[in-house]
């Protein structure tokens, strides 16, 4: 028994993690470099353009557009954590990257905090649409600047605290392995490196509770809110229903985008369990890339007010 204790205590000395996911992209690294570079630049330009339009137009200074701006800012922040490092590693042609455990934990904390925050922001948007369409007389009272600020702080600070605790629990686990077939660090993978035992079980249970609190419950709330909106629209005139649903459609598309991307990643992990490292690496990349590229397109093309301002702005630039 004592020998077993000594073996499990040795991994405490592990202070770095090797990410070898780049090996799955090495044969076409230049293609992936230019592909991800274009995606990153497109995301930066499109997000910045939409945020600029919202901030510069007083007519768009409304709760719904505040939440849209917050989602796009999350997208920029998450992409900046992910893309530059990936692009540098692809350009260098390395097949694996060694990072300290502390840096790995910080990366996982940032990406998961921003990702779960986006789900909460989408729930806040659905609440805004619910009040606007189902309780219009109460809208100015309920969605006051103080309420919007409180919702923003909740959507940003709650994930920071919950995910931070998950990272803290993962950092206390003794590691039996130090190699991950990943491009970036995430909490699930870090926990999978541990030696098992009660501490690992506690970490896994807590991580599941965080997912329930920041992803599952907001998703249920979003579905409930838009179901109520749809119920009201079915009882009103066609013109009212068309206008109301058109304001909800972009948020639903973004919500579905986040949900499908996250769901595919979770299913891929559970079903393949590391047996297909290339699929695992590409899925993890697309989980970050697809929402960041898709969101500004949806908000820029599907939100009538933003689309009108973008057309006016781009039209003035062409005239000049």
Automatic annotation (TrEMBL):
It is a multi-pass membrane protein. GO terms for cellular component: plasma membrane. It holds the Pfam family 7tm_4. Residues 46-299 form the G-protein coupled receptors family 1 profile domain. The chain crosses the membrane at residues 30-53, 65-88, 108-125, 137-170, 208-234. PROSITE patterns: G_PROTEIN_RECEP_F1_1 (PS00237), G_PROTEIN_RECEP_F1_2 (PS50262). Coiled coil: none annotated. The keyword Membrane applies. Its main location: membrane. Keywords: Cell membrane, Disulfide bond, G-protein coupled receptor, Glycoprotein, Membrane, Olfaction, Receptor, Sensory transduction, Transducer, Transmembrane, Transmembrane helix. It is found in: Cell membrane. Belongs to the G-protein coupled receptor 1 family. This is Olfactory receptor.
């Amino acid at each position: 028994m004592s020998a077993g204790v000594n073996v499990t205590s040795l991994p405490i000395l592990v202070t770095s993690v090797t990410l070898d996911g780049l090996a799955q992209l090495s044969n076409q690294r230049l293609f992936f470099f230019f592909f991800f570079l274009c995606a990153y630049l497109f995301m930066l330009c499109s997000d910045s353009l939409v945020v600029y339009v919202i901030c510069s137009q007083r007519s768009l200074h409304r709760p719904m557009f505040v939440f849209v701006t917050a989602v796009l800012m999350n997208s920029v922040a998450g992409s900046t954590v992910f893309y530059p490092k990936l692009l540098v590693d692809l350009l260098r042609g390395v097949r694996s990257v060694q990072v300290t455990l502390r840096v790995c934990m910080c990366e996982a904390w940032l990406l998961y905090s921003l990702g779960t925050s986006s789900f909460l922001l989408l729930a806040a948007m659905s609440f805004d649409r619910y009040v606007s369409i189902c309780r219009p007389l109460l809208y100015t009272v309920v969605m006051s600047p103080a309420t919007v600020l409180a919702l923003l702080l909740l959507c940003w600070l709650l994930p920071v605290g919950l995910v931070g605790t998950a990272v803290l629990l993962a950092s206390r686990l003794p590691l039996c392995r130090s190699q991950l077939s990943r491009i970036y660090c995430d909490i699930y993978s870090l926990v999978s490196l541990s030696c098992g035992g009660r501490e690992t079980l506690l970490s896994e249970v807590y991580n599941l509770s965080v997912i329930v609190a920041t992803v599952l419950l907001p998703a249920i709330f979003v579905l409930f809110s838009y179901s109520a909106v749809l119920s009201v629209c079915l009882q009103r005139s066609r013109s009212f229903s068309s206008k109301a649903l058109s304001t909800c459609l972009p948020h639903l598309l973004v919500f579905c985008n986040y949900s499908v991307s996250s769901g595919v990643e979770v299913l891929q992990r559970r079903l393949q369990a590391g047996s297909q490292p290339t699929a695992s690496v590409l899925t993890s990349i697309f989980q970050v890339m697809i929402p960041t590229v898709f969101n500004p397109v949806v908000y820029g093309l599907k939100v009538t007010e933003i689309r009108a301002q973008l057309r006016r702005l781009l039209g003035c630039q062409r005239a000049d």
